[in-house]
Predict the structure of Phage protein.
Amino acid sequence: MELHLQNKDLKALINVLETITVRNMPANRGRAKLLMHATKKFNEYGQDELDIIKEFAETDADGELLVNASGQFALKTDADMTLVNTLVTELSTEKVVLSAGEYKKRYEDFLTYLSSCEDNFDAEAVMVIDTILDQFEGASK
């Protein structure tokens, strides 16, 4: 079983997984596996984004990124802000695959639970939940 999202959806998924109330142990174990996979992908995404920024930002003698007075990374004078934004946007919309692998049953337990969950979610979370449940239901047919 695989779930397909975009990098930008990972944080919303992680927030759901961290805050949802699950009282069923098989579903909780599935939540733990999905959270582990989503967190790993989110950390990779963060590192990729940082690599893009490092390419265009000023650094100090220790290689640390410099921040300007407004709290933004200080860009090199020849840096093309449009290019930076394009690269970061492309990265945010890049496809991510969360592969259940040996944890297929665990994913299924959690997604079955999630499909009838009565918790309240914000709009961003609902969109991500809808996306993964559509994929789960499609794979179950």
